[in-house]
Amino acid sequence: MNLLPIFLDIRGKRCALIGGGEVALRKANLLVRAGGHVHVIAPEVCDDLQQLLADNQGATINEEFTAAHLKDMVLVIAATDDDATNARVSEIAKGLGLPVNVVDQPELCSFIVPSIVDRTPIVVAISSSGASPILTRQIKEMNETMLPARIDKLAMLLQSYRKQVQQAINDFADRIRFWEGVLDSEIPELVYSGNDTAAVTALEQRLQQQDHSQRDGEVYLVGAGPGDPDLLTLRALRLMHKADVVLYDRLVSPEIMHKLRPDAEKIHVGKQRANHTVEQESINAMLVRLASEGKRVLRLKGGDPFIFGRGGEELASLASAGIKFQVVPGITAASGCAAYGGIPLTHRDHAHSVQFLTGHSKDGVLDLEWEDLVRPMQTLVFYMGLVGLELIVKHLLDAGMARGMPIAIVQQGTTSQQKVLKGTLDTIVSLVKADPPSPPTIIIIGTVVTLQENLAWFEGTA
Predict the structure, then answer these.
(1) Which residues partner with 247 through β-bridges?
(2) Pairwise CA distance, residues 418 & 363, whole Å
(3) 299, 220 in Cβ contact below 8 A?
(4) Which of 116, 242, 267, 411 is the most buried (most CB within 10 A)?
(5) What is the mean pLDDT of the chain?
(6) Do the beta carbons of residue 441 and residue 341 sit within 8 Å?
(7) pLDDT tens digits for 112-122?
């Protein structure tokens, strides 16, 4: 984080604005909206800015800027077209310990004025740390679209009940649960649709409940996808922000972990070959125990939890214990890695079917119907197959698959470390020995691999 995001209270306080043109007018409007007492210092001030100051008890000082103009100010903005003046304002303000912004000159600023989505009292501030104002403007437009128009009314309703809730519910954790329950209920939608009276009635009914501490636990089984956080579903993100406790696998990328609620307890239960950090039975028991304590538990798995993710086993334990759960599918590694690698899993001229298979062997044995796997016009996708690659190749060749059959290994697909290694059944083992891929990997076998050269679009390290 390059800058500390803060919201500064300037209501009724003196703010210095150096410059009297159109740019200064835009900044003055912002300061006035925040309740600042604006003092404009400039030899000439445009008519619109003068009118704004007159309407909002501002002050105009028609002079060249000097250090004396910053006496008793709490904030300084330089909006002139003179670089020397802007630099001098910045130097003097910083010397006095005053926050200073120089328009379009981030190197002279101690703070950046962000793009703002204003639904007062809800305010969303967006900054690129001065890197790209146009990008922040586009992000602002996205937020303007996503935030309900009446979210300000919801915020004011909740604010009006804060003292009442505090008096009725003594325990801080119970108050948190109460407000979370309100926001998870029908009340927000009632407000957004303009039915404020019904929203107040519903809120009153909740407040009159006798026991606010009781809460049923629940488990969210969520697929995190193959690594790119942009591939998370909206529902997955919403539940990630609600969870009290997170049990996550080793295949969940750091970028996705950053999307979690910051204060959530995070427990690593990842497993890898010959190193099971936490046994599956212990994970099942942990999910039941945490949910039984009334916690909202997020079980976060790489890819999709129902495709080689043992999600069904975990849900069976929850169902037996009578624990509520939700399932949010994720983009499985096969589809994500193939798409980012430029390899369609099916194609009219190459493959009419696709099989997802585990390449994980037990005691050196991989028990699959190999003769069925060598049929033409199909694609094979092996999960967890890198260690057993030689065994997979041997079985396929023994079953009659052509030595020239194309094969691709996608390393860490959808991430910046993605790499696609291509060969044939005859060459892939030696290629892997010469340039070993870094797990996790997906193995794709079939003539669809030949399409990769023209369809590759994602630039990882390949």
Answers:
(1) 267, 299
(2) 30
(3) yes
(4) 411
(5) 92
(6) no
(7) 888 999 999 99
> Residue 235 is encoded by which pair of tokens?
């529902």
Torsion of CA 155, 160, 165, 166, to 10 degrees: 100
Q: Alpha-carbon distance 74 to 348, whole Å?
A: 68
Q: How far is CA 64 from CA 18, 59, 81, 283, 303, in A?
A: 9, 15, 13, 70, 63
Active site residues: 249, 271
Residues with Cβ within 8 Å of residue 298, at least 6 apart in sequence: 219, 220, 222, 239, 240, 242, 243, 245, 246, 247, 248, 260, 264
